[in-house]
Amino acid sequence: MADIRPFRGIRYNPAKTADQDKVITQPYDKVSPEMKQGYLAADPHNFVRLILPDGYEASAATCRQWLAEGVLVRDPEPALYVYHQEFTALGETRVRKGFVGVLHVDEFEKGTVLPHERTLSKAKADRLSLTRATRKDYEQIFMLFSDPEREVDRLLEPAGDPDIRATDEYGVVHRAWTVTDPATIARVRAKLADAVLLIADGHHRYETALNFRKEVEAAEPGLAPDAAVRFKTCAFINVADPGLVIFPTHRFLANLGDVDWGAKLALLAAAFKVTPVAPADAEEALRAAAGGNAFVLHAGKARTWLLELADRRAVERAVGPERSADYKALDVVVLHSVVIESIFGVTPENIENHVKYERDWRTAVARVDSGEFQAVLLMNPTRVEQVRRLSELGERMPQKSTDFYPKLISGLVFHDIAPDQADKEA
């Protein structure tokens, strides 16, 4: 059972932070050192001081100070927060609609929450240390639910001006409305009580919340059933929402030593049709080959090739018989198993040392051309229906298989999971 509840959110006090644009940030794992410096310069109360502090205890101290000074305020009663994001993608303006609430954190084996990606240990250790120090749940998980009739949207249709409004550096407009009506909240909870939820983005944060819950339960045997630490804030989005967009996440290759590209192309030609392509034409060529396990390998100026899978036996050899046909059909699985692992020799155990990620095609190509990386493997996006199907089968994709756009902004609202906090049923 999906136990979704309202919570007393903590958010910026508009009387102290009139310009919300200057205090919000991208999620912690998207913030580069340069972005962090820009956020710090934008406003002394920027949220980056909490999610990427100079020391975990510094975040706890800063949060206490901002609460004491009234920079941050806690809402007086539990609420769900209707959350709309207006953005431009694929040539048109869209609005992605959802709401923020808290979800009881359950083990994946219970089947209420389904993951779809593998996670990395370093990120989980970092977020767990921050949670221990602060006892705050700063950032939401992007959670998908299925509601084909869009009944939840109708229940939470906002009226009037939003309570929170901010525009991020990518031009995405974030609006949130506070919903405290017990009857409305009860109907939303009842509608989603039997839902199977899919983590779209935030696997590290969910596993961190699960690990921290277990840690606190072991240390505090009498922990109340509705203790806030048993819950995690999530932004719940309908998989049927027309504003749902997935971008591809391209793979840089680095630290490979001296690469004999002629030899690598010969290995690739055993499984792929390899076609030289002009960099200016490569994106369109890849898009035209969508659905057939195709990629573009760019290894510097005058070294760009379209790779189209020609021998599925290469996938069978690399993946093994225990995996489903749906799993083996994924671009990201073919890319990792056949290309990155089998041909370039990068194993899942050492992938963090050799593979980095980039959303933007032109940026990816430019960073290779500059010599920052040895090559980039460019790909088409995973489809939403593929994500759901694999999750239902209980099979996890390689890390960074999906890039749902836009990201959930950080700094709109967060949750106190201190020992004396509880999330009561509405």
Walkthrough of the structure:
This protein has 426 residues and is α+β, with helices and mostly antiparallel strands. It has 2 domains: 4-244 and 406-416, no CATH class; 249-380, Conserved hypothetical protein from pyrococcus furiosus pfu- 392566-001, domain 2 (2-Layer Sandwich). 33% of the residues lie in helices and 24% in strands. The protein has 15 helices and 21 strands. It has helices spanning 33-42, 48-51, 56-69, 121-134, 151-155, 182-192, 203-219, 261-269, 279-288, 313-319, 325-328, 331-343, 351-354, 361-369, 384-392, and strands at 4-5, 10-12, 72-74, 80-89, 92-104, 113-114, 136-137, 141-145, 164-167, 173-179, 197-201, 231-238, 245-247, 250-253, 272-276, 294-298, 304-309, 355-358, 375-379, 403-405, 415-416. Helix 3 (56-69) packs across helix 4, helix 4 crosses helix 7 (203-219) and helix 10 packs across helix 12. The chain starts with a strand and ends in a 10-residue tail after the last strand. The model has no long low-confidence stretch (mean pLDDT 93).
Please provide a brief summary of the model:
This protein is of the alpha+beta class and about 425 residues long.
Give the count of helical stretches: 15
Strand content: 15-25%
In whole angstroms, the N-to-C terminal distance is 16 Å
Q: Summarize the biggest pleated sheet.
A: 9 strands, mixed
Multimerization status: single chain
Total count of domains: 2
Low-pLDDT stretches? none
* Radius of gyration of CA atoms, rounded to a whole number: 22 Å
Class from helix and strand fractions: alpha+beta
| Percent of residues in helices | 25-40%
Q: Could you tell me the number of beta strands?
A: 21
Shape, please?
globular
Could you report the average pLDDT, rounded to the nearest whole number? Answer: 93
